[in-house]
Amino acid sequence: MLAFFLFLPLGVILSVIRINIGIVLPFKIQLLAAAIFGLRYRTSGLRTPPADGKQRRGVLYVCTHRTLVDPIMLSSALQKPVPALTYSLSRLSELIAPIKTVRLTRDRARDAETMSRLLRQGDLAVCPEGTTCREPYLLRFSPLFAELADDMEPVALDAQVTALYGTTASGHKWLDPVAFFANPAPSYRVEFLGAVPREWTRAGGRTGVEVANWVQRRLGEALEFECTGLTRRDKYMMLAGNDGVVAK
């Protein structure tokens, strides 16, 4: 315990440096600079873009949700900024994010329109679980993403820490990245799993729920995580120990 408190001031300094690397430096040198300051990063399965560059709509990257920096790690792997859909990101996190963030409203019609518009403009990242989960489980995927895109690629993201969790069950979510990067040697794994086969898309005759469940299973297998039917609300109900209302 004493060692933890002795390290904490250094951890805060490391966190500030690592966060600023993501904000200030271009993607091409971010990973090298981060590695110098102790961040371990591993990526695999990245596809080579089509030679002709022709693409009517963007690729929808369907990611697992471990910490708030998931979309930034995805962009670092792709070496380009990919806009990310968010639900309850703090204003501070939105301001310092090195990528574009688009807040959803949980209104199905409005969110569908927003996602369709963004996909017409280019690539997009989404975390269908709707909230972060630090345990080796995947929450139920919202099927909305599967109803709007056929060109999808699941991306398995996993974060490992040694001292401080990079996610909080309740409280100040904007501190999550600070806690994650304050670890002595935090690590991130980004694995691209290839395009979703046409027979497992809406164009192939599948329903949105079937597509969402297939993608969840594929990601669960890659990470060796258990797939669940729990929703974001279920998670907070269990944490509260009642009907979802956290006692003051």
UniProtKB/TrEMBL annotation:
GO terms for cellular component: membrane. Keywords: Membrane. The lineage of its organism: Eukaryota, Viridiplantae, Streptophyta, Embryophyta, Tracheophyta. GO terms for molecular function: acyltransferase activity. Residues 59-160 form the Phospholipid/glycerol acyltransferase domain. SMART domains: PlsC. It comes from the Eukaryota. This is Phospholipid/glycerol acyltransferase domain-containing protein. InterPro entries: Plipid/glycerol_acylTrfase.
